[in-house]
Amino acid sequence: MKPTYLTRIPAAEAHIRATGERLTQPRVAMLATLMTADHAISHLDAVDALAKHHPMDRVTVYRVLEWLVTMGIAHRIAGDDRVWRFMLTAAKPNGKANAQHLQHAHFTCNDCGQTFCLDEVSPKLPVKVPAGFKTIDVDLKLRGQCAHCA
Amino acid sequence: MKPTYLTRIPAAEAHIRATGERLTQPRVAMLATLMTADHAISHLDAVDALAKHHPMDRVTVYRVLEWLVTMGIAHRIAGDDRVWRFMLTAAKPNGKANAQHLQHAHFTCNDCGQTFCLDEVSPKLPVKVPAGFKTIDVDLKLRGQCAHCA
DNA sequence: TTGCAGATGCAATTGAGTCGCAAATCAATT
DNA sequence: AATTGATTTGCGACTCAATTGCATCTGCAA
């Protein structure tokens, strides 16, 4: 069954505390919200989801989301509608961010519009680039129908 | 050496005439401009580039670009800055759009910001998706340093 | 408890992209 | 060559995600 917001609070606090940065209510609430999502959520989705338990300013949502990205806790995905969507970066068992996650795939459903992470697809992409080009980051994006809509 | 705008006009006219749609000045100018670019250009880049030889309205640029995409002559790429960039779709020797081009890779340089097409990388991507998911379109995006900036 | 760097809220701004509508243009037909 | 009618273009106004500036508040350490 789906995890609820409230049950994620302690884990969210621990995760933020582990960064050594300031532990603030908006950060906890935002991270707990991300933890309950099984797909990438937009800034607006986040505002709506937070409205129930911990309403906060739109701009704060932007800034907290950006902070989570710079901390490596979340990553952002460019949607076809020019809207950023955010998702937790997969963590390794020890709690550290997964470096391999930098190179991974996303699947966006043409019907429902949801975006999912496909971690299992990614790490072994053999990508050849022309001479002189240096690859730092790889992003694989699929479009189609998700299991629910097909 | 780089192709110039003027030398591309005849080819652009021929290409548009081949679609069976109306041959208009903005379409010719836009296509000729795209033909001189070796990397993906934004809507604003296009407006600036056209200003010299064939100034046209911002909105017209958007619409012509969109028309070129629906015709399969160009394709659009979502940039990390939420800006669409456009590029000619590689044509096969017979002049028809290349269907395989639908599944291909882009390389964006972190330093100069230019985006290039890597047609040779793409077609044989073995992508596994979870059960029930149906892939229709694949987009591979690389980030790093291009040959010029490295 | 206090001090203050860093975080948040609010209002205003930016900038890519879109919409509606009147005027202009292309091309088919006379 | 002129007419006609459907498409396109230009212009203004608009939408909406995201950002910026600044005053206020808050977490944390001394």
Topology (elements, then pairings):
The structure is a homodimer of 150-residue chains.
Chain A: H1 5-17, H2 25-36, E1 41-42, H3 43-53, H4 58-70, E2 74-78, E3 84-88, E4 104-109, E5 115-118, E6 134-145
Parallel strand pairs in A: 4-6
Antiparallel strand pairs in A: 1-3, 2-3, 4-5
Chain A binds a DNA duplex (30 and 30 nucleotides) through residues 21-27, 42-44, 56-60, 62-64, 67, 82-84.
Oligomer: homodimer
Helix content of chain A: 25-40%
- Helix tally of chain A equals 4
Strand order of the largest sheet of chain A: 1-3-2
Tally the structural domains of chain A.
1
Mean pLDDT of chain A: 87
Q: Quick one: CATH class of chain A?
A: Mainly Alpha
**Largest interface (CB < 8 Å):** A-B, 35 and 35 residues
Q: How many strands of chain A?
A: 6
Beta-strand residue percentage of chain A: 15-25%
How would you portray this structure in words?
Two copies of one chain form a homodimer. Chain A is of the alpha+beta class and 150 residues long. Chain A has a single domain (5-144), classed as Arc Repressor Mutant, subunit A (Orthogonal Bundle), CATH 1.10.10.10. Helices cover 33% and strands 23% of the residues of chain A. Chain A has four helices and six strands, in the order ααβααβββββ. Chain A has helices spanning 5-17, 25-36, 43-53, 58-70; strands at 41-42, 74-78, 84-88, 104-109, 115-118, 134-145. In chain A, helix 2 packs across helix 3 (43-53). The longest helix of chain A has 13 residues, at 5-17. Mean pLDDT of chain A is 87; it is low at 92-97. Strand 6 (134-145) of chain A pairs antiparallel with strand 6 of chain B. The first copy, chain A, binds a DNA duplex (30 and 30 nucleotides) through residues 21-27, 42-44, 56-60, 62-64, 67, 82-84.
